[in-house]
Amino acid sequence: MSTFLGASVGRKLVVGISGLFLVLFLVVHLVVNLTLLAGPETYNTVAHWMGTNPAVLGMRPVLVLGLLLHIAVSMYLSVSNLRARPRRYLKVDPAGGSTWASRNMFILGVCIILFLALHLSSFSIRMTFGSVDMVEISGVLMKDAYALVTTRFSLWWYVSLYSVAMVLLGLHLAHGVQSSLQTIGLNDHRWRERWASLGLAYAVVVAVGFAILPIYFFVQAQMS
Amino acid sequence: MTMLDAKIPAGPLADKWSNHKNSIRLVNPANRTKLDIILVGTGLAGAAAASTLGELGYNVKAFCFQDTPRRAHSVAAQGGINAAKNYRNDGDSAFRLFHDLIKGGDYRAREANVHRMAEVSNQSIDQMVASGVPFAREYSGYLDNRSFGGVQVSRTFYAKGQTGQQCLLGAYSGLIRQLARGKVTMYPRRDMLEVVIVDGEARGIITRNLVTGEIERHSGHAVVLATGGYGTIYYLSTLAVGSNASAAWAAHRKGALFANPSFVQIHPTSLPQLNDYQAKLTLMSESLRNDGRIWVPKEKGDRRHPNSIPEEERDYYLERRYPAFGNLVPRDVASRAAKERCDAGYGVGDTGLSVYLDFGGAIEKQGKKAIEAKYGNLFEMYNKLAGINPYEEPMRIYPAGHYTMGGLWVDYNLMTTVPGLYAIGESNFSDHGANRLGASSLMQCAGDGYFILPVTIGDYLAERFRTPRISTDGAEFDAAEKEARDKLERIMAVGGKQTVTSFHKRLGRIMWDDCGMVRNEAGLQKALSSLSELKEEFWREVKVPGRLDQVNQELEKAVRVADFFELGQLMCRDALSRKESCGAHFREESQTPEGEAQRIDAEYSYVAAWEHKGEGSDHEFHKEPLKFENVEIKERSYK
Amino acid sequence: MKIKLKIWRQESAEAKGGFVSYDLEGVSKEMSFLEMLDYLNSTLIEGDEEPVAFEHDCREGICGCCSLFINGRPHGPAGETTTCELRMTQFEDGSEIVIEPWRSRVFPVIRDLIVDRSAFDKILQAGGFISANTGAAPEANSIPIAKHKADEAFDAAICVGCGACVASCPNGSAMLFVAAKVSQLALLPQGRAEAKKRVRKMVAKMDELGFGACGNIGACEAECPKGIKISHIARLNREFLRASI
Questions:
Q1: Chain A residues touching residue C172 (CB < 8 angstroms)
Q2: B137 in active site
Q3: pLDDT tens-digit series, residues B290-345
Q4: Which of the residues B314, B331, B336, B587 is marked catalytic?
């Protein structure tokens, strides 16, 4: 195991596998978010279930661990990559075939972490530890997550930040998904294009899916 | 003059090698670790020898001028490697391969060596496949073969147009494995400047470290040269620009005889020269002649676009002169015929020094797809280099210096006339006579390196293990180092005005014009005097900037060119002394009434081996008579 | 035509180095890129300056000697071309051409545009071979190999070891080079016996030497003069995973 984690390829595998895990998490997150469109009752019920179900709660530390591993190992690799070329080129023309996103995963990652900090402090942390207004649905008293979210989504700066962050997340995913699959070795000349298309489609769905909600609620708030 | 003894073992031809292996001395494995072998040049022959000698337990010190062995010019061999596997059941055998080689070499090669080369050819293929060389395969999963060089059997193994690269990388992988084991020590970026002779035996070399400029001493119980050919003497040739004769020439100056120096193969299908700054001529594989037709306009100086010259106004001169073989005549014949047309004023292109190689008919008949499958990568390469699309219009080609059959004289054990000094691969003279057949160069290098030298060198080393590690402090090393240093300092001190390259170009021109495809008495005499003038001018006018103790590429070139002047003179002397035409050596004085090469077996059935007699003295001529007991000597006719 | 060259000059490994500009007249479109540099050097020598040191040998795209980072791309703008195959037709009259050596911590500059690529040999020494002693090989046709596998092995085996992959990779990774060898030998039955050991050792050596980690960016593939695909890197990853489990 020490040789596995001691090797760049092994570390890349950690980043790739944790990345794919986060990719799955985002799907769940998106589905939950989309229930916002079904109204306060549905959303609050789902949120309450997510916050109380032991299986879901049990997954939280796994998620945190996966996220931290993904961040820590890729940070480590990025720093060592910088050391591999102490003197930069005067002129670089990436005319080749590489995408902007693939060359800037580190920067994209850092932006996403910053957004994540804001995001967590706005929602998850407040939902778990902070004081949130309570609401009763079908006889059960629960935190009014819907109100918390929609209030936030009525702030122009938050909505703008959120939308930009989703574009960056989309870029990160557009390269990240296919890159992870390549890293775990699930690639050859036939699957190459398919994985790339799949990764791109996934990235678009996730970015648009998430971004659509703040915009929707912001517009609604403006109209009312 | 003396008659040289090649020490050919007794017995029937097919048993000579086995008998020899059974009778020569062996070195005890425990004693091999006490023996150091210096190996200069790490192309296919050198890398194969290094890996095999390392496996046997010898300590090998390997040298090359490149940064890594993988760049040696074996890498550029395109067509393939021959072996008498008879996988096609077309009647091939070691004897038939031997026979084709002797005939192709125009009866100027040594029977026993050639047969041995054919015998070990199969083992070389086995070895390479085991080393991971990805030769072309059929759908069955078995190895594919193709016909090459106008022979009647399919015995050529290939890896697309990159056979040499794959063979070299296979041998190189064996070499690096021994590097990892510590049995081979690699000294890259080194030029060999001198051989050190102690008590009459080769015991070391002097090198220049091409990074630091340091002059270094290295010792060993034997020295093996695998330093390739000297076709770059023509300046423009198909060789890598760094290929050179300096190591072989240093050995020659120390007593190793140089055999048949004038035997140089001119390859018929190279890209023509495009401009005055051109540094080399790129080879287009001989396989192109399987489908391409060679022609020039029937009218002198016809400057029309080739596609607008109608069929009846084209002269398919090879088909006209050689109806039986047509475009598939051997390399020497095709080259001379191209030169003849161009000299007569029928050549095409701006310079008039090229002929057309036309695939129009083949594409019409077989379809573009079929042609693309066979030659796609070559067409692409041609398009890239010449900017002409061969699918649309004919290629332009011209002959170029390619392979040197001549080289250091060696006996059956591949030892030169200096005890303990060996020469393998293209650097020796032994196996191709006056003309080499296609796909035989890789075959020889692999055979020499993997299977022949590692056995025969044991016979010499069997007693040498008693000699303790050789010190590099002796007077002989002092003297050799001084000699090397003096020469470098002399070059640096000239301080003239002309670049090394300008001299190399002029040297190449002289050699190409008068000691190239066609030679005659007057031209060779003229070349000799031009060469001595040019050499004298070089030592007065050459300009080498920079210092000795740093990377100095001009100095590297200057050393090589300085040696080429002397080698060029010897080539001309050799060509003068052989007043017959044979193989690639065409003396105008010796031709048939139809203008074909005329061999004179009664007088010239020998190997000419030249001995260096010191600066300013003429070489002494020695002879190794050639006996043909297993083939019937015939006229080479392709009519 | 007339061009403006901006070339990295560095007298030795220890020297500082910097860019020097040259205006070069009389360049012909028919020249190859290296012939243009030969021409520059002849004018430099005649003008009592030291010529630019650069590596080259076969000049037909197969030895892997030539390198050069030309206008921001390894081996210049042509694609699937080595510098020696590059022609001046690729450049306009009056254009500026920036020429830099490969930049990598692992490829230190020796002089001007020459870098030390011996790290590649070291990686191969760690396991880029099949341990087949001379004489031990079985009959070549005793092991049939499916044509598509042999062909794929060949596609990896054509690596010329020039280092363009490292030079172009934003991470300075040597993965394409390492993967080409691992993949070639993993595809052949002859190479399977040592496959696990090989991939672990070669990757470990690559890391130890200080190359960066692969980010699946694909610049290496786009700039490889031999068109070697990064699907070979995926195979290396598979082999590595297999060797680790």
A1: 81, 84-85
A2: no
A3: 899 999 999 998 999 999 999 999 999 999 999 988 998 888 889 999 999 999 99
A4: B331
* Secondary structure, 3-state, B265-316: EEEEEECCCCCCCCCCCCECCHHHHHCCEEEEECCCCCCCCHHHCCHHHEEC
| A84 close to C (CB below 8 A) | yes
Number of separate domains in chain A: 1
Considering only CB atoms, C211 lies closest to which of A6, A84, A178, namely A84
Task: Determine the residue type at A123.
Answer: F
Q: What is the CATH number of domain B268-401?
A: 3.90.700.10
Q: Which residues pair with B259 in a beta bridge?
A: B407, B609
Contact: A9, C240; criterion CB under 8 Å: yes
CATH number for A22: 1.20.1300.10
What distance in Å separates the CA atoms of residue B364 and residue A171, rounded to the nearest whole number?
51
Whole domain around residue A216: which residue ranges?
A: 2-84+101-223
Give the percent of chain A with pLDDT over 70.
99
| Exposure letters B312-339 (e unless 16+ CB within 10 A, then b) | eebbbbbeebbeebbbbbbbbbbbbbbb
Q: Which chain B positions have a beta carbon within 8 Å of C30's beta carbon? A: 274-275
Task: Say whether C144 and B141 touch across the interface (CB within 8 A).
Answer: yes
- Name the domain count of chain C: 2
Residues of B in Cβ contact (< 8 Å) with C161: 68, 70-71
Domain region containing C101: 3-111
As a whole number of angstroms, the distance between CA C126 and CA B28 comes to 29
Tokens of A200: 């791109």
Q: What is the CATH number of the domain that holds C191?
A: 1.10.1060.10
* B573: three-class secondary structure by DSSP: helix
Backbone CA torsion sign across C122, C123, C125, C128 = negative
CA distances (Å), origin B47, targets B9, B192, B423: 27, 17, 13
**C137 and B127: CB-CB below 8 Å?**
yes
Whether residue C73 and residue A184 make contact (CB cut-off 8 A), yes or no, is: no
Exposed e or buried b per residue across B346-355, where buried means at least 16 C-beta atoms within 10 angstroms of its C-beta: bbbbeebbbb
d(CA C146, CA B137) in angstroms, rounded, equals: 8
Q: Is the CA virtual torsion B3, B7, B12, B13 positive or negative?
A: negative
How far, in Å, are A142, B545, C112 from residue A39 at the CA level?
15, 84, 69
* Predicted complex: ipTM over 0.90: yes
CA dist B182 to B42, B54, B378, C181, Å?
17, 9, 40, 22
- CB pair distance less than 8 Å for B55 and C11: no
Q: Which helix (H) or strand (E) covers residue B440, if one does?
A: none
**What are A152-198's pLDDT values in tens digits?**
999 999 999 999 999 999 999 999 999 999 999 998 888 889 999 99
Q: Which amino acid is at B367?
A: G
Could you write out the three-class secondary structure of B318-361? HHHHCCCCHHHCCHHHHHHHHHHHHHCCCCCCCCCCCEEEECHH
